[in-house]
From TrEMBL:
Name used for this protein in its record: 8-oxo-dGTP diphosphatase
EC number: 3.6.1.55
Signal sequence interval, chain numbering: none
Segments forming a coiled coil: none
Named cofactor requirement(s): Mg(2+)
Superkingdom of origin: Bacteria
Length: 258
């Protein structure tokens, strides 16, 4: 049996919080928290389904949404193909109203105060804590603007870091127990082999690599991807990458050896 196609939206407010809703009584996993959304009806585009579900469930209008991740999850009652979208604070309007008797909660990514969470959403909740912009390098690690999120290679890693950065094929050191593992990839083959990671750093060296990343994002990815590229490449591709589902952008400022 084919998976049921489902859309879900990660809605942000002006404070940077994300909206979670509880599943109403009478539905499978009633009382569990999730991202709002629902089944795609025959003839609907994914975006049309997203708009309809949010109007029906929450009374708000979505004006635009960026694709993010795709997940296939097998529940006891059905296998679902989930298409997640991110919806910025200025990409929706209206007053959020629980039209199906569900509970609502605005939560800060990485600091969730509601439970239990729907099983298919666990990894996504962690992924949302990854900032959209990072600085640094593979050799010295990456960090957010306020230093609250930090990624380090094995030589620098300690328990205070949020994630360990490994090459695509590198084994995880037995002595290191990170909360998350990032893998660094540079091509499609490495991308396919690194699906055991929690997130991916895609090193983009030229236009050909930039196009490969774009095509991969357009096909749908199940892990958050950060692009690591020179300023000129970022200038040309940042918008189309982000519109296709890129999670984060990192400018490569390493010195070029001549």
């Amino acid at each position: 049996m084919k998976p049921v196609q489902v859309v879900a939206g990660v809605v942000y407010n002006a404070a940077g919080e994300i909206l979670l809703t509880s599943r109403p009584a009478g539905k499978a996993y009633a009382g569990y928290w999730e991202f709002a959304g629902g089944k795609v009806e025959a003839g609907e585009s994914l975006f049309d389904a997203l708009k309809r579900e949010f109007e029906e469930e929450l009374g708000i209008t979505i004006t635009r949404a960026r694709p993010w991740l795709q997940k296939i999850h097998a529940y006891e009652h059905a296998t679902v193909h989930l298409h997640f979208f991110r919806i910025a604070a200025d990409a929706w309007y209206g007053t959020v109203s629980p039209r199906e008797g569900q509970q609502l909660a605005w939560q800060q990514a990485g600091a969730y105060a509601v439970s239990p969470m729907l099983p298919a959403n666990a990894a996504l909740l962690n992924a949302l804590a990854i900032p959209a912009t990072l600085s640094g390098s593979p050799q010295h690690g990456f960090y957010s603007a306020n230093g609250a999120y930090r990624i380090a290679p094995p030589s620098l890693f300690h328990s205070g870091h949020d994630a360990l950065l490994l090459d695509a094929h590198a084994p995880q050191p037995a002595t290191v127990q990170p909360r998350a593992v990032w893998r660094s990839v540079g091509n499609l083959a490495e991308f396919k082999q690194a699906q055991d990671a929690d997130a991916l750093l895609w090193r983009v060296e030229n236009d050909s690599a930039a196009q490969t990343l774009l095509h991969t994002l357009q096909q749908g990815v199940s892990l958050p991807v950060a692009a690591y590229a020179r300023a000129n490449v970022c200038a040309r591709y940042a918008q189309v990458w982000q519109d296709a589902g890129l999670h984060a952008l990192i400018e490569n400022r390493e010195s070029v050896t001549v």
